[in-house]
Amino acid sequence: MYDRRVNQGTFSVAELCALIRAAIEQTMPDDVWVEGEISGLHRARNGHVYFDLVEPGEGPGAAPVATMPVVLFRESRDRVNRLLKRHGDPIRMSDGVCVRIQGRVDYYPPSARVQLRMSSIDPTYTLGKLAADKDALLAELSAEGILGANAAQPLAPVPLRVGLVTSVGSAAHADISTVFKRAGMAFTVVEVDTPVQGSGAELPVAAAIRAAQQAGIDVLLVARGGGSKTDLAVFDHEVVARAIAAAGVPVVTGIGHDIDRSVADEVSHTATTTPTAAAQFVVGRVQQWLDRLGDHERSLVAAGRRAVQRADQRVETVRSSVAVSTANTLDRGDRLLAARCSRLVRTARSSQRRAVGQIAHAVARLEVAQRHGLTTAVRRVDAVEAQVRALDPALALARGWSITRDGNGRVVRSATGVESGDVVTTQLADGDLTSTITAATHRTKPNKARRPDSTQDATSEEAT
Predict the structure, then answer these.
(1) For the residues of 296-334, what is the DSSP string, one character each?
(2) What b/e readout covers 136-153, taking b as 16+ CB neighbours within 10 angstroms?
(3) Which helix (H) or strand (E) holds 38?
(4) pTM summary value
(5) Of 287, 292, 243, 285, which is closest to residue 156 (Cα–Cα)?
(6) Is pLDDT at 374 greater than 80 in this prediction?
(7) What are the φ and ψ backbone dihedral angles of 392, each rounded to 5 degrees?
(8) Strand order, beta sheet including 251-255
(9) Whole-angstrom Cα distance, residue 212 to residue 209?
(10) Cα Rg for the chain, rounded, in angstroms?
């Protein structure tokens, strides 16, 4: 048939496809090993896996140099998975993963496509390339002096405001949330949701790190649950490492399992083994502060108790001293008071005797003075009585004197005190005379310096 078609020079489509397929089988009858980067991986419902194996171009965003479609049929897929499990399941086939796979070049006529039917994989190639890329990046960061930049950031003693960069809703997110809730502390968690695996995931992870630190946090957790080496490869990427190194707050990583160690772990402030361990580290930091605070509290209480005990001892010493001093003072006071009371009694008795003597003397003097005063008073009374008798008007009347009164009963002492026509009464020793004044003669009073006439009666009073 081949020769006939050649002679005639015309092929059907099926014949041409068969010819191409035969040529490929003749040229490449055995399986080949091919290395490249997985792109556009798709897992069909029937169990088959389809992807492109590409050779990336130079520089970011460059078009691939070459592309080879790959199909991994279900029976071969099971064999490949068993092979990976025997090696500890270190890699997961996904976009962006560099692999070395074995397969046979095939031509698929329905789509006129040359493809590689994959049959096996070399895990050591992928792991070796990941390790080599990781070592090269760490060497570059170390040479630039930024490998320990984030480790130099001071960690707050009480980091209660926590940033969290992870896939919200994932197991890692749930584990961290549980640790913070069970701690019973006043944590505020600022969550930034981001994909944490797959081709290109390094860019949103780096952006999430930069966004989280702008929320005024004390510490930043970058977390992802366990997975294969290739699942965790995003945390070996340069842009993620540089974002952590440039972070203005301490970054605590909790990526993968206990045995996993990424570039992100190397450049972070503190690397923990799991997301749960990362959250526990932050809780432990706060708990350490609380423990130190409790220690200080206990120290203060103990110091306070010792101070109180010393104060009590000083008070007791002072109290005892004051009690002794007071007792001594009271004793001296009692003795002094008794002595002064005794002196006071003696002084009072002496004063009483002196007072009694003085009183007796005064009484005697008073009696003498009283008798003398009484005698003098009697004499004075007798003299006054004699004088009164001498001055008694009745005696003067009996000797011929008279007393003249006006109509109002006033004694007429001068001729000027009456006028003609006035009625006067003259009192005599044996009776009264009523007269009417017909005339009043006024005489000039004699000069006091001139002696009175011997013929004048100085004691007589003329009644008219």
Answers:
(1) HHHHHHHHHHHHHHHHHHHHHHHHHHHHHHHHHHHHHHH
(2) ebbeebeeeebbebbbeb
(3) strand 32-43
(4) 0.54
(5) 285
(6) yes
(7) -65, 125
(8) 188-193, 161-166, 219-224, 251-255, 270-272
(9) 5
(10) 73
Element (H, E) at 184: none
Best mean pLDDT range from 269-278, 291-300, 418-427: 269-278
Tell me if 183 sits within 8 A of 285, measured CB to CB: no
433-455 pLDDT per residue, tens: 898 988 877 776 655 544 444 44
What are the structure tokens assigned to 46, written together? 């029937």
Q: What's the confidence (pLDDT) of residue 365?
A: 85
**CA–CA gap between residue 199 and residue 44 (Å, rounded):** 19
Closest CA to 445 of 424, 420, 414: 414
Which of these, 103, 82, 107, lies nearest to 35 by C-alpha position? 103
Give the tens place of pLDDT for each residue, 187-212. 999 999 999 887 788 899 999 999 99
Q: Helix, strand, or coil here: 461? A: coil
| Tokens standing for residue 41 | 């991986």
Given its phi and psi angles, is residue 64 left (phi above 0), alpha (psi -120 to 50 degrees) or beta?
Answer: beta
Choose the weakest-confidence range: 81-85, 100-104, 160-164, 188-192.
Answer: 81-85
Q: What does each C-alpha distance from 417 to 394, 405, 409 come to in angstroms? A: 24, 10, 12
| pLDDT per residue as tens digits for the range 95-148 | 888 888 899 998 888 888 899 999 998 888 888 877 887 888 888 888 898 888
Structure tokens at 42: 């798709």
Q: How far apart are the first and last CA of the chain?
A: 219
Question: For residues 175, 181, 184 and 186, what is the CA-based torsion angle, rounded to 10 degrees?
Answer: 110
